[in-house]
Amino acid sequence: MHTNWIQDTQALLNSKDESAPTRRLALQTALGLGYAASAAPLMAQTAVKTSSEGLIEGEVVIDVNGFKMPAYRSAPKGKTNLPVVLVISEIFGVHEYIADVTRRFAKAGYLAIAPELFVRQGDPSSYGEMGKLIAEVISKVPDAQVMGDLDATLQWASKNGGNANRAAITGFCWGGRITWLYAAHNPKLKAGVAWYGRVEGQTNANNPKHAVDLAVQLKAPVLGLYGGDDAGIPVTSVNNMKEVLALSASRGNKAAKASEFVLYPDAPHAFHADYRPSYRAAPATDGWNRALAWFKQYV
């Protein structure tokens, strides 16, 4: 099912008719705008809704060695040489919540881009069960593929109004883990903000290393925003990462030394996800303000 979906989407994305309605539909399908069924239960209405007034926003296509990867970008209208923020989704892909986050960063003066990093493996929006989504799509996405896709996204940004030498990354849950990895991967990156991203765990061919293994290689300082009541990421895991960062700092890694954690004692996992019952307004707002301040300091 997913192979045919990817092939059909690619055929439409490769169409030379940029205005074709079918091509736009393919982009919207690939990006999964709306909300993924597997993210249920959803709140009756989102806590935050950002206007697109004054922004250029919507779907774009990024070339990754011939593969056409969909992405959602937002930026202030009429401005160039903008600092760039890569916005990395949870396992649900680039849906409306992630698109709104790009608009929030654009309102703050950034070119914000959310690439659809699962598009080769499947369509997150077509899944109604989280376990099945993880098993059939997410677990099959190689970290190396993601790093290459993000490099290509930054290259696209440099040609479309962004300054790749002023680049940052932020991500949520699955994207929080990727934030740590990318901060250890790209020397051009200036800063990262990881929202409740896993920092350790079992390894395999697709996920050969985790943040605890890569701390000594950090090239940009990361602000980690975590919940003390997160059932999936215990406080002991956060403390382990702190110890590894301290060790890396003692060995001369400046990015590790500058990295920080904020732990919100009563916050659950996904406390920033304002479309789900896990949302907690106080830590979400505080974390957002800290993220903006972090990027202002380093980017």
Structure description:
The chain has 299 residues and is an alpha/beta fold. It has a single domain, classed as Rossmann fold, CATH 3.40.50. 37% of the residues lie in helices and 20% in strands. The chain has ten helices and eight strands. The chain has an eight-stranded mixed sheet, with helices on both faces. Strand 5, helix 6 and strand 6 form a beta-alpha-beta unit. It is globular, with a radius of gyration of 18 Å.
Secondary-structure blueprint of this entry?
Blueprint: H1 2-13, H2 21-31, E1 55-64, E2 67-76, E3 82-88, H3 96-107, E4 111-115, H4 130-136, H5 143-158, E5 162-172, H6 174-183, E6 189-195, H7 211-214, E7 222-227, H8 235-250, H9 254-258, E8 260-264, H10 281-298
Helix pairs in contact: 1-2
Number of strands: 8
Poorly predicted ranges (pLDDT <50, ≥5 residues)? 1-30
Q: The CATH topology is what?
A: Rossmann fold
Give the fraction of residues assigned to helices. 25-40%
Q: Give me the CATH architecture, please.
A: 3-Layer(aba) Sandwich
Q: Give the helix tally.
A: 10
Global Rg:
18 Å
* Overall form: globular
Can you give the mean pLDDT?
89
Strand fraction equals: 15-25%
Instruction: Tell me the strand order in the biggest sheet.
Output: 1-2-4-3-5-6-7-8
CATH-defined superfamily: Alpha/Beta hydrolase fold, catalytic domain
Per CATH, the class reads: Alpha Beta
Q: By helix and strand content, what is the structural category?
A: alpha/beta
**Distance between termini?**
42 Å
> Main β-sheet, in a few words?
8 strands, mixed
The run of helices and strands is HHEEEHEHHEHEHEHHEH
**How many distinct domains?**
1
